[in-house]
Amino acid sequence: METRPGIWNLPIAHTHHLSGTAGTLSFVGGAGDFDSAGRIRNSGDIDKQIKGAMSNVAEALANESCTLDDVVRLKVHYTGERGDWEMIAALAPFFNMEPMPAISTMPEPMQPFSGQTVQIQAIAQRGWRANSDVRAVPRLVPQQSQTLFGDRTVTAGLRAGEFIALASRTAEDADGTVQHPGDGVAQSHFIMERHAETLAALGASFQDCVKLEGYYFGNTREQWEPLSRARACHFHNRGPVATVVPCHNLHPRGAATKVEVMAMRELRNGYDKYIPREDHWPARVWDWTYSTPYRQGIRLRDTVWLGGQVPSQPHSNKGRSVMEGLLMPQTRFTMSYIEDLLRPFGRSPADLKLMVCYFTSTGTEAETLAFAKTLADCVGGALPPVTLVPKPMMHNPNTTVEIWGVAQG
What we know:
This protein has helices spanning 46-62, 84-91, 184-201, 221-232, 327-342, 365-379; strands at 19-22, 25-31, 71-78, 102-107, 118-125, 134-138, 155-160, 163-166, 209-216, 241-246, 257-268, 271-274, 278-279, 297-300, 303-306, 352-360, 386-391, 401-408. By secondary structure, it is α+β, with helices and mostly antiparallel strands.
């Protein structure tokens, strides 16, 4: 695509947006240390790439009249032998004001483009620090990592007016020890209980959640389902939309799963109130293999939130995939689900302001480029801000892709 000096781009041939806004929220997709031609500027150097990627996040946010001080939630996918606290500490200096945003970290075995070690996604809300309703809950840093932060306070959960973001967490306690090592079900309950405490301190509960994101070790339904049930039992109908994908590395050792949530709740006449949401679930769109409280698409406050879509058989809850193991056909099919979900809201893929894509890959840039081309063909126009996360394997060998997003409502 044509570029202008100083404006960074992804190294793909298709027209794409770097940022977008839905409702009061502004989004930046997977920003890396790219130059205007889409080249990685500091191949293999994670420290320099963090600096370059954050500069690019700031540049993209400026297009939405936002700055780094407006970031509420930061999500970083990184490749390298670093713990989560080291990564959070490396990102903290880019945020000079207190509280810092909720920062979620996810170690990955590979990145989408050659030489890349980090990609950073941001959700911002312009001017939230001047809002009369700003609340933050500190995250306890293990003693061995406290020197990384000096006198800074790390954020576990942040409420910026109506929008609430909780940082991802494992079952690590305040001492840095993983509770219930190797027991994913017990760890899931531990994590959800800590998130419930954080939400309560922010005047909210799980019923206010609009999005759950999670990660787990495993590539069979038997490995996934017990953890899924453990998370789901903390919600009542109607729950949020959800995306949970396999992981291949977590910190600290013994962690079996990781979860984060986002929520929305209003303050009216001094009282915290639930915000009603509209939801649609077209009959064609797949269902889970057991009864869950999760939804597939919800709308509130001019935003439409989508659950992670996979190439499961339509009109079915059997968990079987169509076009087994074929990434490009499955990607096209999955995007047809996203189109189905957006249609009842009067929206289409062109209204997406963030798209997060997990896909099976052997780690070559060529595979990423082919995947991005298929996405662009399905969107039918400029790609929205997009995060591309290659995985050695998704849920099983038959399922190769999962995609979720946020659209202008």
